[in-house]
Amino acid sequence: MKKVGLFFGTYNPVHVGHMVIANYMAEYTDMDEVWMVVTPQNPFKQKDSILKDYDRLHLMELAIGDDTRLKASNIEFDLPQPNYTVDTLVYLREKFPKNNFALIMGADNLNHFHKWKNHEVILENHELYVYPRMDSNEGGDLKRHYKVNYVEAPVMKVSSSFIRKSIKDGRNLRHYMPSKVSEYVAEMNLYK
Asked: Is residue 18 part of a domain?
């Protein structure tokens, strides 16, 4: 069975922090692949500031390039909105029965995991791989759950909202995003 890590995100836009985490998971854990799942709408985020779904997917494909350990996924684009992870996981298990899916999340998300729809069902069927975040106390009650794996991935303080604001302000951010992503964002005048 192939172990696939699912790294969900709005990726608006994808940046080096995302790619460092994905690379770390593919290289330093028992995952065979990491799927970067571009989410069309996070139930907790405003939709108006989000680049179109397929533009964000294209940026992810540019970021991944020829790295075969990583895959850009639009699996949630055709699922009912808003997307809930538990529903996506059921769909993925049916569609890819030979894959063992695990979730990749920041410690800040683990703190709120108990608020996720059917979080107990997720934990029953899937491992969680948790990477540290600068400004979060790690994991709350779930910290010692046997399905929760802490990984010592690098901690980077960079966010998509910082990048969007900086682009609007005319800053040069070419080293904050993979080079092909940065070039495409500039060429297409995105986030201005």
From this structure: yes
